[in-house]
Amino acid sequence: MPVLVLDLLKYAILAILYIFIARVVKAVYVELRPDTGRRRSSGAPAPAPARAPARRARKAANKITVIEGALKGKSFDLGDELTIGRADKCHITLDDTYVSQIHARIFSRDDTVMVEDLGSTNGTYLNRHRLGAPAELQRGDQLKIGKTVLEMRK
After folding, report:
1. How far apart are CA 143 and CA 131, in angstroms?
2. What pLDDT is attached to residue 61?
3. Sheet holding 112-117, edge to edge
4. CA 101, CA 66: separation in Å to the nearest integer?
5. What backbone phi and psi angles, to 5 degrees, belong to 67?
6. What is the value of pTM for the model shown?
């Protein structure tokens, strides 16, 4: 092969390697940064108006139950907000490599229970559909986060 072709191939592979390293560094940065900025600003409006309706939702004894995964059979009461992830500060802590540190949150808005993916790498699935925006949770809905499946119950 001509030297020019080998040089072009060498630089192309080097460029691909740098792009790959940059994406890895970005993914690690997003995963490890503190819970500020984008996540907090998107979640800030929801808790204030949701406090009064959340009390009504608690009277209805809304629960989310783990039906598949390491915590199978465990139920959690839905309060104002419930966070799910690998971090110790999450309300539901999942020891799963497919789960982000702070993966998703379940919160009350008006008289409904909502679920929101918090920018996770592997996504949050509601009834086998990947969440792109906050969605309403209803009785019987299944929420898949990593290898864990949760079900909304009243």
Report:
1. 10
2. 54
3. 92-93, 81-85, 104-109, 112-117, 135-137
4. 19
5. -110, -15
6. 0.58
